[in-house]
Every structure is written in C-alpha cells, then in structure tokens.
Amino acid sequence: MLYIIGLGLNEKGISKQGMLILEKCHKVYLEGYTVDFPYKIDDLRLGKKIKILERGEVESNQLIKEAKGRNIALLVYGSPLFATTHMSLVLDAKSQKINVEVIYSSSVFDAVAETGLQLYKFGKIASMPDLEKGESDFLKYVKENQSINAHSLILIDIGMSFKKAVEKLEKAVEKDNVKVDKIVVCSKLGTEESEIFYDKIEGLKEKEISAPFCFIIPSEMHFLEKEGLRRFG
After folding, report:
1. What's the CATH code of the domain at 138?
2. CA 58/CA 78 separation, integer angstroms
3. Dihedral-angle region of residue 190 (phi above 0 means left; psi in -120 to 50 means alpha; beta otherwise)
4. Whether residue 52 sits in one domain with residue 116
5. Structural domain for 32, as ranges
6. pTM for the whole thing?
7. Strand pairing of 213-217 and 182-187?
8. What are the tens digits of pLDDT across the range 214-231?
9. Are 73 and 117 contained in the same domain?
10. In the chain, how many domains are there?
C-alpha cells in the first residue's frame, strides 16, 4: 500500500489518522522540492526515520516498486494532491495495481481565508516562476480572473526571495498594463509566525518577509472582505 499523507501547514499539522498510518509503514519519505518549509524537518518528530526525495525520485517508479507488498508513506507539505506530480503518482500506482490511500490535511488554499477574502470568489491559481523567460506569463491568469471579478492567488517558486518576487510582480504589471491597486502578501500561514500584509507594491518593497509566501491580487470586493483586509493594511 502507498500512503500519500498531507502534513498541513506547521510541524504539528499532520492528522491523527496520518500518525496512526505511519506506525505501520515500513518506510517514510518526504517530498522536498515543491515548497520552502517554514520549519526544520527534524521538528516534525514523527517517531520515524524520514528520507527526503527530490523530484526525479518521486516521479520515478521507486515508490511504487517499494509499495508492492509493503506499506510505504510519502509525506507532502500542506495538501497531499497539491502538485501535479502527486496526482501522477496516484495514477501510475493504480495502473500497476498498487493500492493508494490519500490522507488529507490543511493547505494554503484553506489558510488564505484568514485574509477575509471569500474562497469561492477566487479564480484560477497562478504560479510565479524563478525564470527570466516568460516571466510575466503568470499574469494571463490574473487578467482572466479580473475579467470575471475573481481574486487571484499567485504562488511563488521555491527559493525565490521576497524582494525578487515583488520586483518581478511590479515589472510584470507595468509591462502588461494590468491594473493593480493594493495586494495581499501572506507568509507562513498556519504557523505561529504567520504574517499578512495589505499594501501597494511600493509599500511592500522594504519589508523583510520569509518563505513560504504568496501574493493575492483582490478583484471587486464585498464590504465584509474590505473590512477583513483593513486589519492588515
């Protein structure tokens, strides 16, 4: 059996169900390439030896082979099916007659509701890559969302500094002539060091914000959403 277990947003975020399953797993792996962890891996203290896997190892057939006749766990930060890679792993395992069970937990998609913005009013999710080529491509999703008055969540590539991400956003909106007033910045949501800021791009430039963080470009807001965001302005 292959178990894909969500860790939630902090070192204590794994569910009781996930902990019980780990007790019967022969090996425990951790997917370590889709997010900047807001804590040290040793802080998880799950009572098991954990091996960190890179993209190539997760995308190979390694886990599926090991799950033949044994219980193997793959730990994933946040929600277990957050990345396309993880869904591909589920489909590959099922095609090879390996049983898979997914244990869910909280993710950034739940936690952004703390901003006061209503979750059902979010549109397509965009990702800001740490690349120069096509650096403003993520804005096409923002434009689509704005056309239907939907909020835009922008996820930031692993390893990118806050300063660089803000500069890329500023350059991109100027280049593509996208109307942006104030943006929301969320950092380390779900942890004791969680921070939320609501300001113009210019006002965010001097801030020191730690990963993982994300941007939200609000669209037309209900008065309750405006009231919720004022707390962070």
Report:
1. 3.30.950.10
2. 17
3. left
4. no
5. 2-106
6. 0.91
7. antiparallel
8. 999 999 999 999 999 999
9. no
10. 2
